[in-house]
């Protein structure tokens, strides 16, 4: 009888230990998923940082429209999207950027930016039905915003400050710029890192 009681106790100890191990494993998997999950547009070195005054440019789009980038005192944000007719990823993103511009039309203006051969740009506009959006050609604009790889996007707030910027290759990356602006952070990378640090501090204090 005593042996049966001891065996039963040991069985429950093992069950509780296994349950604790499973909980710990799920927690580690969750933390790993958070670290490896999409964290938004990749912020590259160089160029102005989020929170800085956006470089201001007054340019003419290839259709003749006047385009002011980085203007203060407006009521709308500007999404500056750098692309090229020779960039395959840019072309796959065009339908997505058009959809984002449509979804955010109440608060956002989309400006396309490129450089190089104008006939090739005109062809890209016709092929992808981009006539609605101004496209400016300016090497200086890309340099001022630190564009080293494409596709690249910069979100400028109504106050003329750079809200978020980075390399983008998916809708999630594009939307992360808007989310970062709403959260008041430079990027979702910063937000995720800060959240993880705050969580670690809370766990440490709770020990």
TrEMBL record:
This is Thiol-disulfide isomerase. Residues 48-186 form the Thioredoxin domain. SUPFAM superfamilies: Thioredoxin-like. Keywords: Isomerase, Membrane, Transmembrane, Transmembrane helix. Pfam families: Redoxin (PF08534). One of its GO terms (molecular function) is isomerase activity. InterPro entries: Redoxin, Thioredoxin-like_sf, Thioredoxin_domain. The chain crosses the membrane at residues 6-26.
